[in-house]
Write a structure and sequence with these properties.
It is built from 16 helices and 19 strands. It has 477 residues and is of the alpha/beta class.
């Protein structure tokens, strides 16, 4: 997320830039581990040299980015071509040099899915940036080996978009990430971040390394990979806009690249635009202002076509205040909890998100203002759950059970209250197949991650040995 000065109370929320593309790779010249903005292919080569060969594809990637509609990029020259130099484990240099640059789309020409450790680390940075990774696959035809490698990428799969096959540029076989990043930038500029970058022609190519038909495309789709195809009379097209998680979930923000990016754009813009609450007391006037500014921002997106629905209430909704999103404890701690739901695909399909903002903390003698028409904010409803009925023998089934539980609790604004079950809490359930994303992970880890991702509060009926370690709130009853 780019550094943004705190907003001024009463001003409209400004949308953040949607297409800030970052490249990390190997070049002949230029500063090392330093983000350098470039606005053309000529400017890139003037700073970083030609570096146009198959072993160092950064130059080709940047060329294809601008050829396909990109207008500006942030380039980092890594110390060397090794995957560990593009994505260092120590948290310095390489992709980490982009911290604070506002990158929303990341390309790492020279790093492929054959290096899952570095891919996982790059996706972790994308999660911190609110960005997506255009992931290059290994060269060569699609096969079971590549699919098996992709299965090793478990965390943040919804932030990776992979494309096949490689492309030919200036007579050299190169990965497609640069060209696709350019298509994303072109689509953002011409239609908006909410438009899927698919069905769009690729420019600046000599050809595709492999010709794909309908059968091969279906195999790729089932694996969450987007095809690049050539059609007579239509040219070479990006044929798909799914994330790697698209084959495993129906949730729009995880399944589709454009919905993931729209969601990041909305949450990032709201977080930046509402930073003024840090200087304001948490009272009814502030909550009303937060709701108003958020509704105005979402209304603007709806009018541009970012959200579906013929009426505003079909496209988005906003809640903020005691009795709706906040408890008395939240108010006393200066917490402003904002719940936003969007319809990015169709009116009946809402994508729900919660933002927790820190406002000024009232002094002990101050009485927080009650919600309109209410003297005391009611506590959120509590859903009591027997953990033994959620944990399955197989980790995949446990994940599905928890996903269903947390999704229902999120929609209802409920707190989930688990009965304590020490043996189940630390249990490592069985791996049934290669698609089990949390193989050999403790149930505690699974609950922690899934509840955090959905913004659901979890409590335990009695003190649990793991709860204090993981920051769970313990229910006193």
């Amino acid at each position: 997320m780019p550094p943004v000065e705190p907003g001024i109370a009463g001003t409209a929320i400004r949308p953040l830039p949607t297409s800030v593309t970052g490249f990390v790779g190997v070049a002949d010249a230029g500063p090392v581990n330093t983000p350098v903005p470039v606005t053309s292919a000529a400017e890139y080569h003037a700073i970083f040299g030609p570096s146009l060969d198959g072993d160092r594809p950064l130059g080709h990637a940047v060329d294809l980015f601008f050829a396909n509609g990109g207008t500006s990029a942030v380039v980092v020259r890594a110390e060397g071509p090794a995957p560990e130099q593009l994505v260092p484990a120590q948290g310095r240099g390489g992709v980490h040099s982009l911290d604070g640059s506002g990158v929303t789309v990341l390309a790492l020409p020279g790093l492929t899915a054959d290096h899952p450790d570095q891919v996982r680390a790059a996706l972790a940075r994308c999660a911190a940036y609110g960005a997506v990774l255009v992931l290059d696959l290994p060269p060569g035809p699609w096969g079971s080996e590549t699919e098996a490698v992709l299965q090793q990428v478990s965390e943040h799969r919804e932030r990776a978009a992979a494309y096949h096959p490689w492309v030919v540029s200036a007579g050299v076989r190169v990965p497609p990430s640069g060209a696709v990043a350019g298509v994303i930038a072109r689509t953002d500029a011409g239609r908006g971040v909410w438009k899927a970058p698919a069905g769009v022609e690729l420019d600046g190519l000599d050809g595709l390394v492999e010709a794909l038909g309908s059968q091969e495309t279906e195999r790729l789709t089932q694996a969450g990979v987007n095809a690049l195809r050539e059609f007579p009379g239509r040219g070479r097209l990006v044929w798909g806009a799914r994330t790697l998680a698209g084959a495993q979930t129906a949730e729009p923000a995880s399944r589709y690249l454009n919905v993931r990016r729209l969601t990041d754009h909305v949450l990032g813009s709201l977080s930046a635009g509402l930073r003024f609450v840090q200087e304001e007391p948490s009272d009814a006037a502030l909550w009303a202002r937060v709701r108003q500014l958020t509704e105005e921002f979402l209304a603007g997106l709806w009018r541009q076509g970012a959200l579906q629905g013929s009426k505003p209430e079909q496209a988005y909704g906003v809640r903020c205040g005691p009795g709706e999103t906040m408890t008395e404890a939240d108010v006393a701690a200066g917490q402003v909890v904002l719940s936003v739901w969007l319809a990015p695909v169709k009116p009946a399909e809402f994508d729900v998100h919660t933002l927790r903002l820190q406002a000024g903390v009232p002094s002990p003698t101050d009485d927080p203002a009650p919600a309109p028409g209410s003297a005391v904010a009611p506590q959120p409803p509590v859903r009591a759950v027997d953990l033994g009925k959620v944990v399955s023998r197989y980790i995949g089934e446990t994940e599905k059970n928890l996903a269903r539980l947390f999704d229902e609790a999120e929609r209802a604004g409920e707190v989930v209250l688990f009965d304590e079950a020490d043996a189940l809490f630390g249990k490592r359930t069985t791996v049934r197949d290669a698609h089990d994303r949390y193989a050999s992970q403790e149930v505690s880890y699974l609950i922690e991650r899934m509840a955090r991702d959905r913004g659901v509060e979890v409590r335990w009926r009695r003190q649990h040995p793991g709860s204090r370690r993981r920051g769970w709130r313990d229910d006193p009853r």
